[in-house]
Amino acid sequence: MLFTMVMLGVVYLAFLAFLYYYAGISTLGMVIIAGGLLLLQYFYSDRLVLWSTGAREVSESEAPELHAMVTRLCAIANLPMPRIAIVNTSAPNAFATGRSQKASAVAVTSGIMNQLNRDELEAVLAHELTHVKNRDATIMTIASFLSTIAFFLVRNFLFFGEAYDRRSRGSGGSIIVVWLISLLVWILSFILIRALSRYREFAADRGSAIITGRPSHLASALMKISSISARIPTQDMRRVEGSNTLNIVPALSGQPVFNLFSTHPSTEARIAALEKMSQEMEA
Question: Which residues are catalytically annotated?
Answer without folding.
Answer: 128
